[in-house]
Amino acid sequence: MAAVLALALLLGGGGFAAWKLDWFSGNGEAVTFGKNPPPAASKSDAGSPTPEAKPSGDPDVLMPTGPKSDFKQTTKLDDGTIIAKTRLAGAKSGFEGDVWVWAPKEYDDPKYAKSGFPVLIALPGGNGFPANYWSDRSLGLQKAVAEGVKAGTSLPYIVIMPVLNPDNKYYYDGSDIPGQAKMGTWIAEDVPAFTKANFRTYKSRDGWAFMGSSSGAFVGMKTVLQYPDKFKAVIASGGEIVPDSPLWKGHQAEMDANNPEKLAKKLIETNGPEVYINFQVGTKESGKDRMLKFQQQYGKGPVKTTIRDIQDGEHNGWHYVRGMKEGSLEWISKVLKAPKPEGS
Questions:
Q1: What does the pLDDT look like over 196-212, one tens digit per residue?
Q2: Three-state SS across the chain?
Q3: What is the pLDDT of residues 31-62, one digit of tens each?
C-alpha cells in the first residue's frame, strides 16, 4: 500500500514536493505515547507494580504494565497525532513481527490521564505481510475515528495494527496451524499483551474489539468467537466465513476449532458471553449471501449480528472506512466501554 501511494505521488509529478509535506516530518523519530501519566507513587509505594494502581477509581482500568516498546513514527495525521511502528517478539507465539499503533488526541489529554481506553485491533486483508495497510493514512481509518469522536459517534480508540501473516507465501487464517507459525496466539495473546504493556487499557473484554477487511475480517470474527471472555465485538468487512488456508490439509480437527460457524454454534449451545458481529459489505462486491446465511443460522442467543450495506461499495479499505463512518463505528461504540475523564 505504501509503495503504491509513493508511486502514485511520483507519477503525479509531486514526488519530491510530497516529502516536504507535514505528514512526513519526523518520520523515523522516537515516539512516546501517554505524555500525561498520573502522579507517581510515593516513595513507600515505589516498588509496587504499576497494574495495582487504580488511579481513576475504576478497578477495570489497567495502567501500562511494561516493559515499554520502542516506537518510531511512520506518519503524522493532520490533527498532529502519530502512527508509529515497533517490533514485537511474541512471548507466547514465538513469532516476531511489526506492529503499528495510533492513539487519539484524548489519550494525552490530562483529564483522561487516569482512565483506560478501548482498543480496536485492525487487521488487513490479502497477505497482511510485511505491512498492515491500515497504518497508511490514505485509507483514513484513524481520521474516521477522530472525526467520530468530535461528532459524538465514536469512542476514542487506541488502534493496534499488527502484521497478519508471517510471510507472503500462504494465508494462515490467524490460527495456530500445526507445524506453522502460531499466528492465532500472536493475534489473540501476544498483541493484546503488548498493548497492555504500553497503554492504559481495560482489564475486561468491554474494552477490546477487532475490525478487519477480507481475510482480516475472518480472523477478527473468529477470534471474538473463540475468546468471548477476552473480546466483545468485531466489524467484519467483506469477510470470509470459514477457514480456507491450504495449510490445514491433514488437520481437520484443528481447522474445525478455528471455524466461526462451529465456534458460534458452541457459543449458542453453552449460552456463552454475548458477542457482537457487524458485517459490512459493498453493494458492488460479492459475499453478502455468506453473511446472510451465517446470520440466519448463528445470529441468535449470545451471537448478535448486523449487516451494513455500503452503497456502491467495492472490496477495498476506502469503502469499508466509509461504512464505518456511516454507522459501524457508532454501532461498535455503543457496546464497548468509553474512557472516563477525571471529575465526571
A1: 999 999 999 999 999 99
A2: CHHHHHHHHHHCCCHHHHCCCHHHCCCCCEECCCCCCCCCCCHHHCCCCHHHCCCCCCCCEECCCCCCCCEEEEEECCCCCEEEEEEEECCCCCCEEEEEEECCHHHHCHHHCCCCCCEEEEECCCCCCCCCHHHCHHHCHHHHHHHHHHHCCCCCCEEEEECCCCCCCCCCCCCECCCCCEHHHHHHHHHHHHHHHHCCEECCHHHEEEEEECHHHHHHHHHHHHCCCCCCEEEEECCCCCCCCHHHCCCHHHHHCCCHHHHHHHHHHCCCCCEEEEEEEECCCCCHHHHHHHHHHHCCCCEEEEEEEECCCCCCHHHHHHHHHHHHHHHHHCCCCCCCCCCC
A3: 999 875 544 443 333 334 444 444 568 999 99
